[in-house]
Amino acid sequence: MSDSLTKANTIRATNILRVKTESPTVKTFTMADNLCAKANPGQFLMLWIPGIDEIPLSISDAKEGEVSVAVKQVGDATKHLHDMKTGETVGIRGPFGNSFTETRGRVLLVGGGTGTAPLFFLAKKVSAKADKLSFVMGAKTKNELLFLKDLDSVCSEESVISTTEDGSYGMQCLATEPLEKLLDKQKFNMIYTCGPEQMMRKVFDLADQRGIALEASLERLMRCGIGLCGSCVIGKYRVCRDGPIFNLSQLREVVDEFGTSKLGFDGNRIPI
Ligand SMILES: Cc1cc2nc3c(=O)[nH]c(=O)nc-3n(C[C@H](O)[C@H](O)[C@H](O)COP(=O)(O)OP(=O)(O)OC[C@H]3O[C@@H](n4cnc5c(N)ncnc54)[C@H](O)[C@@H]3O)c2cc1C
Ligand code: FES
Questions:
Q1: pLDDT at 158
Q2: Does this model's pTM top 0.85?
Q3: pLDDT at residue 248, as a whole number
């Protein structure tokens, strides 16, 4: 193990500095941590919730000695975290994994649910370099569309397309529906995507058919976070070590599993 990985893998106890409610089910937690404060968009950390569990989370912002994660309450660990307050102690390992490649040209971000969080972090970094930045974001309902108000700081209003499944905001459809039309009308040099895997699979298919470069952030069950335990495998890759960001040619190599199946907690393959 390299010195930098050994350092990142050493658990650090830290305090929650701030908690921000983003939606009825998502809160952003900001902690002090010098190592993760230097993370790049796309990287993740392992957050230890004392006495409960340690879970992987994408970094949604990192600067000046602080790191943030946007967390959706889905089960035991995330519920306990949502109940935690400013000043309480958590443990951090990381940052782990690779990051999005920062590109110039015409850039399109496609996010679903909490997947919007790391993409917003990326958008803040690439907005100065990109010729044009467009965002397609989808959620089940208006309240779950994250960072909508903050997006004007990185792209113009007409460059944002929002969709909701219940029609409470923007277009009533899945994010991939306007995406297809957008790709037929406009040229893009790079698509970045993060969100539900079936959405990302559709984005991959559309990009692949049109020969557009793509990077997608994958999630698999993670325990060690550093390539040792094998719980996060997809094809020949370990998502924690070789990803979580995969490009188009890597995704072509794992196309049988991408958007269709993954390993479950007991090691058996389960459908996505
Ligand atoms: C690289 C990566 C980045 C992620 N980033 C975010 C994020 O930014 N925000 C966010 O809300 N969630 C993120 N997740 C998912 C998050 O880790 C799970 O929601 C969390 O672990 C659920 O724990 P729980 O005890 O609350 O729920 P549980 O009831 O234990 O699990 C609910 C579901 O969460 C997933 N899950 C549970 N444990 C793990 C684990 N150890 N590794 C991966 N998935 C797990 C499984 O799909 C499971 O079915 C990320 C996962 C990965 C792998
Ligand atoms: S989480 Fe252990 S190998 Fe990836």
A1: 83
A2: yes
A3: 98
Q: Which of 206, 237, 201, 244 is nearest to 96 (CA)?
A: 244
Q: Name the residue of 78, 90, 193 to mutate for ligand 1: max ligand atoms within 8 A of Cβ.
A: 78
Divide the 272 residues of the chain into consecutive groups of 10 and give the mean pLDDT of each group: 92 98 96 98 98 98 97 98 98 98 94 95 92 94 91 84 96 95 95 97 98 98 96 97 98 97 94 94
* Cβ of 229 less than 6 Å from ligand 2: yes
User: If you take atom 28 of ligand 1, which residue's CA is the nearest one?
Assistant: 75
pLDDT at 135: 95
Cα–Cα distance measured from residue 120 to residue 151, given in angstroms and rounded to the nearest whole number: 8
Pocket flag, ligand 2, residue 238 (CB < 6 Å)? yes
* Encoded amino acid at 179, one letter: L
Q: HEC states along the chain?
A: CCHHHHHHHCCEEEEEEEEEECCCCEEEEEEECCCHHHCCCCCEEEEEECCCEEEEEECCEEECCEEEEEEECCCHHHHHHHHCCCCCEEEEEEEECCCCCCCCEEEEEEEEHHHHHHHHHHHHHHCCCEEEEEEEEEECCHHHCCCCHHHHHCCCHHHEEEEECCCCCCEECCCHHHHHHHHHHCCCCEEEEECCHHHHHHHHHHHHHHCCEEEEECCCCCCCCCCCCCCCEECCEEHHHHCCEEEHHHHHHCCCCCCCEEECCCCCEEEC
Q: What is the pLDDT, as a whole number, of residue 272?
A: 94
